[in-house]
Amino acid sequence: MLIFAATHRKSASTRAGRCPTLAWGEVNVTYCLGIATNEGLVLASDSRTNAGFDQVNTCRKMFQFVQPGERVFVILTSGSLSISQSVISLLRDDFDAGQGLARAKSLYDAARIVGDCVRRVSDIDRASLERDSYSFNVHLLIGGQVKGKEPGLYLVYPQGNPLAATEDSLYLQLGECKYGRPILDRGIQASTSLEVAAKYALLSMDATMRSNVTVGPPFDLLLYQRDSLAVERYRRVCAGDQDLNSIHTSWEQSLRRAVEQLPDIEFEDHDGHIPLVAACEPPRQVVTPQRVIAKPSVTLAASGDSSRQPE
Fold this sequence. Notes:
This protein is of the alpha+beta class. It has 5 helices and 14 strands. 36% of the residues are buried.
């Protein structure tokens, strides 16, 4: 069982998910995740900012902006630490002054405010960065709720424009997405409880950490209950955490047992005879006005700029 520490701090230092792509040569050194269900939101982030054989740094990537009873916003960041810190600093200054997120009328309005801060930092730093061949690389997830509005989840791009999670895309990811995505695709549904979604989030983080050394603990994990307008369940999951180790071990054991219990695969007998049930049907031909497509088909990577936003 995951046990969360209660918190009442006013501030803090899908089926198919969306994940921003990187320009050629860029490297992911983070993994952040937001899940939206009927019960609310689950947000998780790692703390690895730099990885190497002799240097590992950690820094918090989850930030809370809360007015209890009125609004709750949680922001996750990835990309350049310098740029993301600048964006969060601008948002925090405005929020503490009663401006910006403190006056957002909806989550979409809040996402637009975050995008405006990204553009403000871009106006200051982008030209200097690109002059020295550094890209202006920052992505943010913002989840939360304003009183009287629906909770939700948005991804904000380096250009400042937002993308929303929907009933068909119940989760959004930042950074090193591919390793932690399959379990989310298979398990997350709108009806998933927050407690179960938290387990999926930790398993997704664990799978990413297992396959990519640039992602690692501590993990920040937050559950937001719909219409609570407060952050009541948050915890930091460190390396060696008992719950994380228990979930990791139980999942691996259960997965092995499940695979072992699958039906055996049939092969040719010694006479070269293939069982009738294993005979393959020829690909079906589907005729379209432009071309003939053989199924099953192979998914091909689209040509063009790899950093394009989804269409």
